[in-house]
Amino acid sequence: MARAKFLLFLLPLVSHLLAFAVSASGGESSDGLPDILLPSSKQGQGHMKMLRFPAFRFYWHDTSRGSDPTAVLVAQGPTQTKTGFGMVRVMDDPLTVGPDRSSYLIGKSQGIYVSADKQTVGLLMVMTFTFTLGNYAGSSLTVVGRNELKQQVREMPITGGTGLFRFAQGYVQARTTSSDPTIGYTVVEYTCYFI
């Protein structure tokens, strides 16, 4: 009898953990779009995929040089330093599903980043990720925090959002996947986690 009660207790727990593992794996559809970004018609009529931990990943493309930069220098400190202290850039960077610039465009990152550290390359990031594809089209996430570029993984808080992300709380982890300072092009992988 006690064994049967234990199994009845255990079954929903195992079912919940399996559902969590499937949702966290972030599967892809046959056309390469992550499930979390699929248009509603591909997920079934009126069905909205719930955010689970971890939620999703995308790539940020920042171009600071050339004829069509996505990040523009608007202020520079009075003296040149090795950390670029005092530099301010305004950005309108594309967000894509994969690390290649030619992969699906899912939105934009708009805001500023400021070199705010005299000792190391530490940026203050103030940005909004606005999504334009799938269920989250028109919704946005706001991230404000320190981004120390020499760290392999940087963590910054999600401070809010709009649309389906209204009142969002959590954090993002940023990992630079490629950077070429000679042409001013950087790709950063962002993974969003919600609490």
Automatic annotation (TrEMBL):
An individual GO BP term: phenylpropanoid biosynthetic process
Cell compartment(s), UniProt: Secreted, Extracellular space, Apoplast
Signal sequence bounds: 1-19
Highest rank taxon of the organism: Eukaryota
Keyword Signal: yes
Keyword vocabulary terms for this entry: Apoplast, Secreted, Signal
Major localization listed first in the record, in broad terms: secreted
GO CC, any one term: apoplast
Presence of the UniProt keyword Transmembrane in the record: no
Family as reported in the entry's similarity comment: Belongs to the plant dirigent protein family.
Stated role: Dirigent proteins impart stereoselectivity on the phenoxy radical-coupling reaction, yielding optically active lignans from two molecules of coniferyl alcohol in the biosynthesis of lignans, flavonolignans, and alkaloids and thus plays a central role in plant secondary metabolism.
Subunit comment: Homodimer.
Protein name, UniProt field: Dirigent protein
Originating organism: Platanthera zijinensis
